[in-house]
Amino acid sequence: MDNQAIFKEPTLVVCEGAAESVIFELLLARGKLIIPADSLIEDPQTGRLYTRCRKNREIEERFLSVTYDSPCVNIIRIIDSANERFQLSPLYQSKARVFTLTTRPEIEILAIIKEGAYRDWAHVNNMKPSEFCKERLGLHKIKQYAFLRQYWNDADELCHVIDQYRSYHHFQNRERCLAEILIAHSSRGTDQV
């Protein structure tokens, strides 16, 4: 991210689906994120330190209409598509910074990398990563929360997979990825991403 200091401000994390949620939960629980847990905004409906709410108006009503100790709130969106529109109304544009982290074409690309099948997937035309996981890797429950909690249980391995994704992926026009919110671990040799 641009500046680790911004994460000392209240931060709302938006996770698109079950896989994004499981991955965020694991990275948070194992202390792998540059975002301090005490700066995360809790979803009052679920009690979790992230939300699955993705609609801009609903986020404004549920999270941005609340008064925080800071004049600005960070919104980190973990989603598949960089094309998903997210526009805050003028009233909230100066009160929130939005960072979109993508795992294009789908978050399941991380499972393909973990299984060592990235090259095989890259040679298959028009197959979504989730379909490849089900049909070629036998990961039939790849979209199910309970399965994903077991599948993604090693935070160091997950960090390594995210780093591999960053090296394989061809980023477009200011696109950001999950690696940007990871604390560097020993295999990277740096203090921050």
Q: What portion of the residues fall into strands of 2 or more residues? A: 5-15%
Number of strands: 3
Tally the helices: 8
List the uncertain runs.
185-193
Distance between the termini: 8 Å
> How are strands sequenced across the largest beta sheet?
1-2-3
The Cα radius of gyration reads: 17 Å
Average per-residue pLDDT, rounded, comes to 90
Q: Helix coverage percent of residues? A: 25-40%
Return the string of H and E elements: EHHEHEHHHHH
SS class:
alpha/beta
Largest sheet: 3 strands, parallel
Ordered list of secondary-structure elements with their pairings:
Layout: E1 11-15, H1 18-29, H2 56-64, E2 73-79, H3 90-93, E3 96-102, H4 109-114, H5 118-122, H6 129-135, H7 145-151, H8 155-168
Parallel strand pairs: 1-2, 2-3
Description:
The chain is α/β, with parallel strands linked by helices and 193 residues long. The chain is built from eight helices and three strands; from the N terminus they run E-H-H-E-H-E-H-H-H-H-H. It has a three-stranded parallel beta sheet. Helix 3 links the parallel strand 2 and strand 3. The N and C termini lie close together (8 Å).
